[in-house]
């Protein structure tokens, strides 16, 4: 019996098997364990069908707001929507052709160096697509209308 106690005192932390062996015996040993403060550990390890479980307090998690999760362009879109701009990209409005002359071309806004434009020429059902470049002058469609690119700040 003294070998169990000496092993228990030498060990950094008592093993569950050793404690369960010690707590199964009654008498002087259980009183010694009580004095050493190991009785509660022994009872937890010796209880049949139960395992000691260690728990820590955890704060109840709350739902995270979308503004905290989003990044990049989506975050800028959300901030613009809060400020009242529901269509930051200008998709909902169609750019109407102006006079379309070379000295008064239809202005197409873009935050990039080029943009693809579709021109609905006269009685055609399908648009005629063309690229408009930043540094080139007004570009002429097949129907004779001119378009030019205007730089706008990005969203």
Automatic annotation (TrEMBL):
Domain of life the protein comes from: Eukaryota
Keywords, comma-separated and alphabetical: Metal-binding, Oxidoreductase, Zinc
Sample GO molecular function, one term: oxidoreductase activity
Transmembrane segments: none
A biological-process GO annotation: mitochondrial electron transport, cytochrome c to oxygen
Chain sites annotated for binding Zn(2+): 119, 121, 141, 143
GO cellular component terms, A-Z: mitochondrial envelope; respiratory chain complex IV
SUPFAM superfamilies: Rubredoxin-like (SSF57802)
PANTHER family, per the entry: CYTOCHROME C OXIDASE SUBUNIT 5B, ISOFORM A-RELATED (PTHR10122:SF0), CYTOCHROME C OXIDASE SUBUNIT 5B, MITOCHONDRIAL (PTHR10122)
Name this polypeptide is given: Uncharacterized protein
Native organism: Drosophila yakuba
Gene responsible for this protein: Dyak\GE13977
């Amino acid at each position: 019996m003294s070998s169990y106690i000496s092993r228990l005192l030498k060990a950094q932390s008592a093993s569950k098997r050793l404690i369960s062996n010690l707590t199964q015996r009654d008498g002087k040993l259980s009183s010694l364990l009580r004095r050493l403060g190991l009785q509660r550990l022994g009872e937890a390890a010796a209880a049949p069908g139960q395992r000691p479980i260690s728990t820590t307090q955890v704060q109840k998690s709350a739902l995270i707001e979308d503004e905290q999760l989003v990044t990049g362009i989506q975050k800028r879109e959300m901030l613009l929507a809060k400020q009242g701009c529901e269509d930051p990209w200008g998709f909902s409005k169609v750019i109407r052709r102006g006079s379309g002359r070379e000295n008064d071309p239809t202005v197409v806004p873009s935050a990039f160096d080029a943009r693809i434009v579709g021109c609905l020429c006269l009685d055609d059902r399908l648009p005629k697509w063309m690229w408009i470049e930043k540094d080139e002058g007004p570009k002429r469609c097949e129907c004779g209308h001119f378009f030019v690119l205007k730089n706008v700040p990005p969203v």
